[in-house]
Design a protein that fits this description.
Blueprint (H helix, E strand, L loop, with lengths): L13 H20 L3 E2 L5 E3 H8 L4 H6 L2 E3 L5 E4 L4 H10 L9 E10 L11 E10 L4 H18 L5 E6 L6 H12 L8 H9 L10 H6 L12 H16 L4 E3 L11 E8 L8 E7 L3 H4 L7 E7 H10 L12 E5 L2 H14 L5 E3 L6 H10 L4 E5 L6 E5 L5 E2 L6 H10 L2
Parallel strand pairs: 1-5, 7-8, 12-13, 12-14
Antiparallel strand pairs: 2-4, 3-4, 5-6, 6-11, 7-9, 9-10, 10-11, 14-15, 15-16
Bound molecules: zinc ion (ZN) (2 copies).
Length: 418
Amino acid sequence: MKYTAPRGTQDILPADSWKWQRVERVFRETAERFGYKEIRFPVFEETELFARGIGDSTDIVRKEMYTFPDRKGRSLTLRPEGTASVVRSFIEHSMGRGARVTKLRYFCPMFRYERPQAGRYRQFWQWGLEAIGSLSPAIDAEIILFSVRYFEGLGLERTEARINSAGCPSCTPAYNDLLRKELAPRLERFCDDCRERYERNPRRMFDCKNESCQALLSDAPSILDALCDECRDHFAGVEAHLKAVSVPYVIDSGLARGLDYYTKTIFEIHYTKLGAQSALCGGGRYDGLTEELGGKPTPACGVSAGVERLISALEEEGAFPNAAPGPDIYLVAGSDGAAELNVALAARLRETFSVEMDYQGRSFNKQMQEAGRMNARFVLVNQGEGGPLKLREAATGWEVSPGEGEIEKAIRDRLASP
Ligand SMILES: [Zn+2]
Ligand SMILES: [Zn+2]
């Protein structure tokens, strides 16, 4: 019996996990600057939360959830996204008390039963922000600006924001009717999924990944021409705020997001160099969700995105350094006596630096090779009792012979020198 990781999951090994650390660190630092605090919520929730929060007509709820009964027969579901859980937690802990705006972030794995393919996993990671408690278009623009700054921080410059409106409960029913009327004569030519969406929620048809369906929608009426005054004003406000912070954007009336809860602003950030699959994140406003999940009516806006997609985009763009960062020092033993002395020397140096060494009694040459393979910044050769120490910087060949008590200072001085 050979065990393997379950279909649609992957191990992230040390050869790659440093990239994940970088992507998460820049997310955390950027989110802190924008005032979004971390929330950690359960890996599973009551199934009903997602059915209600994400929407019965979505592919996620209809086909993709990991749902199972627990030992008492309660229906639980592994979280397929973050927003429903965040809003549930927001309500449960009365976070909006005092009419505060609550700004939260998360970076964690989600679960969807999808057909695994390149870059798509059944356990995948998402980063996300949610700002709950403000109707101001300044929040929508802030979240879009955050996303742009985050990608810049990772080395993806010149992204493009695409924005649209999802309308609101007072303007979408009339738009749905208009859409049904316009699309009825060509309904036969849409795929089965689209014909079902036509009945349930015709705006979902814009989500279809089928190119022929997209072509049939190319001259469909735009929701932007059907917005109520409130939605139109809000959209204009988002545009004004984006202009004020110089975020380049385009209006894309075909933009739809595969979730039912969006109202007013919806957006995606694209990195156009990536071609057809250029979206790096997406989000929007969900003013009705808190009430839908049993809280007081509370406007909100958020963004989320897959981390796997982001990492492969960064790899394609050469945005990561060529090699994983190695230890500061690889400690080489030049004799058997030195190997024993190195145990204490490593312990001391590890109070200040990351240190690797040999544990297998390997030859001097093998140790030197290992130092190179690990990409160690410095190699410190210890000859043993009485012999001189040799400290060498791998990249430049810079070399000194420090006394035993001078190693830390020699390295610190070298790192400080330009
Ligand atoms: Zn409206
Ligand atoms: Zn379709």
